[in-house]
User: What shape does this take?
Amino acid sequence: MKKTTRRGIEATLFILPLLTLVLFVAIPLVQAVIMSFSDYDMLSGSREHAFVGLDNYQTVWEKARFWKMAAITGWYTLWSVFGKMLLGLIVALLLNAKFRGKGILRSLLVIPWAMPGIVVAFLFTLFLDSEYGVMNALLLALKLVPEGVPFISRADIALPVVILIGVWKNFPFVALMLLAALQNIPKELYEAADVDGAKPLQKFFRITWPMTFSVWFIMLILQLVGTIKEFDLVYLVTGGGPALATNLVGLDIYDQSFRFFKLGIASAEGILLMLLSLILAFIYYRYEFRKR
Assistant: This one.
């Protein structure tokens, strides 16, 4: 009896993660899909919401503002991921070399990634302030600009600034993963290359890159999926402004939900964004399947 009870408890413990997944992922997802096909307006005061079919998707699809947001999201994702992957690879290669203080630098590298988004946003808002910020103080001291530059409130440079902030915060994760991959490369391969007289670039493209490409590709997909649905950092730094210059799709989903209370429209946008993420996830799983 005791043995049966113990097995029952063990089985329940194994099922709990699945129940958690159903409770916090599957049920909200199904609810979002249902809402995307209904006229779900919280301002109406009604608990009954009419089924409207694909009208919400058609509204989103025909809205010029959505395509502008999609373009901004695309540029933000493209340059953010490019910066994180490139900088992460360079830093990983540098930290893989032998020099004093390497352990300290590795510890410091984790700090930006470990910091909460709200802290990062607050620090950079102060750092880039047009009147009291350190960046403008340096630029004015070096006489590179005639007056303080409003980095966050200028529509033409707000998006690049937010991209740089996102790269600074998230590239350490990429660097640490690539560093772990670099340390798994057998030293004998480099020693054999040295005997053959291989140059640094030849060793990189013949040994380092092929041996770390799998990790690099996985990180690329993960960063694409994470960046394409970015919300907190951009919202805290610019709020989608100025003049909607940094208004990502994720921010508009928030606005449609909690400013305009159009949950049907917000759900439709969210489902479209999720489908794009699923396509990226499919590419990742296809790659993993071929590799095996």
